[in-house]
Amino acid sequence: MTLDTTHFDAVPLAPPDVIFHLTASYKADTHAQKVNVGVGAYRDDNGHPWVLPVVRKAEQLIVNNHALDHEYLPIEGLASFTSAAARLILGKDSPALNQNRAIAVQTISGTGAVRLGADFLARFRGTQTKVLLSNPTWANHKAIFNDAGFKDVADYTYYHPATRGLDLEGMLRDLRAAPEGSIVVLHACAHNPTGVDPTPAQWNTIADVMIAKKHFAFFDCAYQGFASGDLDRDATAVRYFATRTELFVAQSFAKNFGLYNERTGALTVVTKSPETAQAVKSQLAKLSRAAISNPPAFGARIVSTVLNDAALYAEWVDNLKTMSGRIQLMRTKLFDALQKLGTPGSWQHILDQIGMFTFTGLNAAQSQAMGTKFHIYMTNNGRISMAGLTSSNVEYFAQSLDWIVRNVQ
Fold this sequence. Notes:
The chain is α/β, with parallel strands linked by helices. It has two domains: 18-51 and 325-407, Aspartate Aminotransferase, domain 1; 72-308, 3-Layer(aba) Sandwich (Aspartate Aminotransferase, domain 2), CATH 3.40.640. Helices cover 47% and strands 13% of the residues. It is built from 17 helices and 13 strands. The protein starts with 17 loop residues before the first helix and ends with a helix.
């Protein structure tokens, strides 16, 4: 029997998501030395997903707490989680928190936080407001702001290909040239995809220009504690801006808690007054209600359990140092292997960049050749996830990279 309808005939086939398609291709590959450095998820030195020991403890505490039930959470989320999330990013001595000028609502991980913030700004600042994203940035940023209805989503200069570092002058030039009151998306730490972060002094200069132009700072923080192993250091930029201006910060607990599939996040907001904070919170709740009704509990309970218990918090900090330390070790091992091979070019940026990702400097043709010739799966912009490297595959990766640099232009 054939359905006599044409309701969906005009719907085109959408292209697959690049990262998830890359992972699927890696899984289908039977090559013994295949390597996946495309996916942004932590792996241990055996290349396996790692459940943080402190998360295992928190899970057991939750499962064995028979006072808990499966009732709906409030629209704004689990209060013990959102208050702890705001305290984590802003600091326990934050003037905004102590003066009740900051609020947080639970979201579907960091992606949901960015989307909720974008929807709010589209409604209350208008879709004609210019949105500036770093060039390059996380691919989903542009899709989110476009989908939220913004008409002018553009780039600001960030990465300097020649130095493989920050192009501060270019960034400041673009911020000064942007219309007053633009929305500027900033990476709080461990910039994705480059791994290039401004120094504290550079952040101060960026803030000066932002405030002079009355731009709105929208931070995306997916790697607090995971980037450097120091929670306070990774929050430096957000905390500095919060002393000077209103802002949004999208927080993800996927990486630093390993809760990738629990989709646990928060949108934390700093405003100028307690009254403004409550008004913003009420509108975020209204938007969230229409989008997801209310958020899931389990991941939020895990994070809340850890952040609100001194002993578990200390153990979590130790787990963070394990993850960030292994990534730093892989940076050192890769750099040393390339030096030993005499690979053409300077590779100091591998050590200078921070966080999960490194921008290798490979072009699209070279990145593709890494896959076709050596079964190394990476994105075409040359970004690699350092967590995909292990003690057993880093030499193979370095040798492959060396061959590509010498033979593919």
